[in-house]
Amino acid sequence: MLAVEKITLNYETTLTGCETLPVFGWIITSTLRDVQQRSWRLQLSAQEDFAQCLFDSGEMHDDRSSNIELPDVACQHSTRYFVRVHITDNHGEESGWSPAATFITGLPAQAWQGVFISAETPQDKDNSKGTLLRHAFSLPDGDDIVSAVVHASALGLYQLWINGEKVGRDELSPGWTSYHHHLLYQTWDVTEHLREGENVIGAMVGAGWYKGDMSFNRYRNYYGQQTGFICHMVVTLRDGSQRIIATDAHWQGCDDAILFAEIYDGEVYDALREQRGWSEPAFSAGHWRAVTTLAAETSVLQPQTACPVQEIERLAPCSIITTPKSETVLDFGQNLSGWVEFRVRGAAGERVVLRHFEVLDAEGNVYLANLRTAKQCIDYTLRGEGEECYHPHFTFQGFRYVLIERWPGTPTRDDFVAVVLHSAMTPTGHIETSNADLNQLHHNIMWGLKGNFVDIPTDCPQRDERLGWTGDAQIFCRTASYLMQTRTFFAKWLTDLQHDQTPEGGVPHVIPDILTGKCDNDRFLSHGRTHSAAAWADAAVINPWTLYLMYGDKQTLARQYDSMKAWVEFMHDNAVENQWSWKLQFGDWVALDAKEGSYFGATPNELTCMAYYALSTLLLAKSAKALGNDVDHTHYQALHTAIVESFRNEFFTATGRLAARTQTAHILALYFQLVPDAHRERTVQTLLELLAENDGHLVTGFVGTPYFCHALSENGQADAAWQLLMKEDFPSWLYQVKAGATTIWEHWDGVKPDGTMWSPDMNSFNHYAYGAIGEWLYRVAAGINTEEHAPGFKSSVLRPIPGGGLTWLKARYGSVYGDIAVHWTQEPARDGLQSITLEVDIPPNTHSMVILDGAQTLLDTDGLDFAPVDGGYGAQVGSGHYRVIWQR
Predict the structure, then answer these.
(1) Which uninterrupted H or E stretch holds 486?
(2) What is the pTM of this model?
(3) What is the biggest distance separating any 2 CA atoms in the chain, rounded to whole angstroms?
(4) Cis amide linkage into residue 731, ω under 30° from 0
(5) Which residue, 330, 345, 319, is CA-closest to 404?
(6) In b/e form, how buried is each residue of 188-227, taking b as 16+ CB within 10 angstroms?
(7) How far is CA 718 from the centre of its chain?
């Protein structure tokens, strides 16, 4: 049976606030094999029954079911629309109409009637208190209200409230962007929140990223000195008329019970000062003050259509422990980002004080040193009226443990729950194997993503940093895109990268950029060294290209193309004979071959810079080709060839010796295809020698680690790649697992074998960069890969490479066309041959090249037509489930 299971809108299943028509796609299901779509029809209507269609595509005779852009259609703002799809396939079957997907349109800049208002004054510039805003209004009989849509945003952070209820599930809205260029607004359908007669709309507002203390330099008021709030609500009545409720000078303001709220330091809340019922009509606001209007521009407002930060899950404490120093500590069993919600009873004026942290020290005591200046503290004053329930509002913490510094009475586990917060992305990847430690590693990689994808891709969620470091985001982008649907998340972040790029094309180290001009006394970043480091700045090119590969996303590729090109031209402008550099280079950051006490690995910066120059230029050339820009494709392809030639002349001797004898130098040369063919075998052998010299361990940092296993497996050394992955002693991925890690560490030796800590100066235990090995698990161990000529897994290559002593592996990836699944089992070798069983699932409207790596004998082909290919047997396969058995 043929059916359209679901429709996607900009890769999401629901969408609010879009100002242009989304990109459409749909997931097809069928009980048949080799299903290909032959035609489709899409209808768009403002009516759920589609009685009248605003747009009808008619029968379209092609196989597109992803990344479909419709002609311009005149949609009304602040309106809900419905979409449905009907398809036919190559077997002569046709689906019924799909279930309708819905989206709500946003509010274009010229339509905003609201202005930014504030309950703060300029004298509050050094204050991080919370404020309340409210406005009362009347509506006619409820039967006359057809719909109500509200659009809102803030200079700072906010929560929207109507008639005593918080609107939506979002937290930390409007998120963090380059606010002067790009301020997101949120859109909600609030029809069910309204009532006939008196209503109240209001907001809680806090400092957030906008004016709070930010970065390790603790600089505040980076974007402004006064918080603000703006909203525009459209209430549509049955007679077709509309009522607009918007922020203006008639609103009222008041200080909140939030006495202090900062991203790094936590929240101080005095329940004795609560304005109870403040957003309800019965509340008397006579003592509230008039608000001030702000001159902030509404032209920068852009819709947040998806991926808000939300509560995703809840974790109960595993235990309450008493440390050797008699400290009372909650253990949630998982390093996470979010906050603690608690229930407490006590007398008025008693306090709860909680300190959040990641690890216990070697003696089992509280360890706070790696937080640096971040307090991560919650201080709550009770009002003393029975059971009180509290959670923070405008902060988040990175933690596994919570020190209970003050609590009325004796705390119990039932009093607490950890609320996990991160951007609401759809999970797409799962791997499970016969090895429990490898499963835990995958778990740690996933939780590293969860802990750091809190509106932007941060480096860490706990210390006084939490910045969008470009290198980390670049390194992890493809792994993240296997684990979750990251297109919307990264597209938003890349918009800010483009905004914050220097006029010359340089790319700041962190996005949004809050370091430029604020690091005069920093040991690394002073004297203008806040942008354009190789591997970091290359996120400008690598991340858009990755979104294109993973999702077939030409929209982001086209939007970012000028930014990509500007970065490559920046390198070109600062190059002499294709060798370029810029002030500060991080190189192979925190590699173990660094000098004692240094963060900088031993691989020469000159090599790293030229290697990434070559890679970004190649990807830019490929992007130009994908976008139909033949002139740029030819130009940058030629430039790439010249850079590769210069690299070889500079770093390879005539006999094939690579000048820099480090693991990372050889990894980059191999993986970036910079090695002359005649010298490839020597380069591979030298890399194996470098491994052997370290007893089979890696000593690589941020630059070399992501590609290590790839460089081996792509050059005939899959067994060596598996051996490297499965190492259990220091340094290795599984060393962290054996040490009890639940996320990925910043340093291989974050906790050393003797139990001591790396320097507290920079020692995060939730730092996803080394989790980039996840890409290898999906692309090589599970063998799930897309093809450049048909991105988004329209055409996939399924070539798993079993190994590592595993007896089985199961993997699933939710592509834009549907789930791709791989399950392999391997038996012990007999008579020199090993039997492997492979099961695959390929979604409808796609096809795959299934390759049996190293196959010598085919035992059961399930009717597939296999033929010899390089290194095994391969067959072109349509959609469906297949099971094959072979020997190698």
Answers:
(1) none
(2) 0.98
(3) 89
(4) yes
(5) 330
(6) bbbeebbeeeebbbbbbbbbbbbbbbbbbbbebebbbbbb
(7) 29
Per-residue pLDDT reduced to its tens digit, 667-703: 999 999 999 999 999 999 999 999 999 999 999 999 9
Tell me the percentage of the chain whose pLDDT exceeds 90.
97
Give residues with Cβ within 8 angstroms of 249, minimum separation 6: 117, 290, 291, 292, 293
Concerning whether 746 is annotated as a catalytic residue, the answer is yes
pLDDT in tens, 166-199: 999 999 999 999 999 999 999 999 999 999 999 9
Distant-in-sequence, close-in-space partners of 813: CB < 8 Å, separation ≥ 6: 428, 429, 482, 778, 782, 784, 793, 819, 820, 821
pLDDT at position 142 over 80: no
Distance CA 292, CA 121 (A): 8
Catalytic residue among 262, 358, 746, 775: 746
Average pLDDT of the chain to the nearest whole number = 97
Output Rg (C-alpha) for the chain, integer angstroms. 28
Distance CA 795, CA 816 (A): 12
pLDDT at position 307, please? 94
In sequence order, the 6+-apart residues with CB closer than 8 A to the CB of 353 are 377, 378, 379, 380, 404, 405, 406, 407
In this predicted structure, what is the pLDDT of residue 829?
Answer: 80
Instruction: Report the alpha-carbon distance of residue 729 to residue 727 in Å, rounded.
Output: 6
What structural domains does the chain harbor?
3-105 (2.60.40.10), 109-305 (2.60.120.260), 312-354+365-423 (2.60.120.260), 469-726 (1.50.10.10), 785-887 (2.60.420.10)
How does pLDDT run across 358-388, given as a tens digit for each residue?
Answer: 999 999 999 999 999 999 999 999 999 999 9
The residues, ordered by sequence, that sit 6+ positions from 416 with a Cβ below 8 Å of its Cβ are 316, 317, 330, 340, 341, 342, 402
Taken as a whole, the chain contains a residue count of 888
Beta bridge mates, 73: none
Structure tokens belonging to residue 745: 């560490």
Sign of the CA dihedral 603, 605, 606, 612?
positive
Q: Which residue has the tokens 């046709």?
A: 94
User: Cα(363)–Cα(327) distance, rounded to whole angstroms?
Assistant: 12
501-551: pLDDT as tens digits:
999 999 999 999 999 999 988 889 998 899 999 999 999 999 999 999 999
Backbone angles phi, psi at 293, to 5 degrees: -95, 145
Q: Which residue has the tokens 């918007």?
A: 246
Q: Which helix (H) or strand (E) holds 690?
A: helix 680-693
Contact at 8 Å (CB) between 252 and 133?
Answer: yes
Tens of pLDDT, residues 559-608 = 999 999 999 999 999 999 999 999 999 999 999 999 988 999 999 999 99
Taking the C-alpha atoms of residue 705 and residue 694, their distance in angstroms, rounded to an integer, is: 15
Catalytic residue among 358, 465, 606, 775: 465
pLDDT of residue 584: 95
* Alpha-carbon torsion angle 745, 747, 748, 749, nearest 10: -110
Using the structure block, give the residue that is written with the tokens 């392809």.
Answer: 637
Distance CA 113, CA 78 (A): 13
- What pLDDT is attached to residue 656? 97
Q: Any idea what the Cα angle at residue 865 is, between residues 859 and 867, rounded to 5°?
A: 85
- The DSSP secondary-structure symbol of 655 reads T
pLDDT in tens, 734-780: 999 999 999 999 999 999 999 999 989 999 999 999 999 999 999 99
- Going by C-alpha positions, the residue among 315, 336, 368 that lies closest to residue 461 is 336
Residue 230 CB contacts under 8 Å (≥ 6 apart), including other chains:
112, 114, 115, 116, 117, 152, 153, 154, 185, 247, 296, 298, 301
- Whose tokens are 């009545």? That residue is 237
User: Cα(215)–Cα(515) distance, rounded to whole angstroms?
Assistant: 8
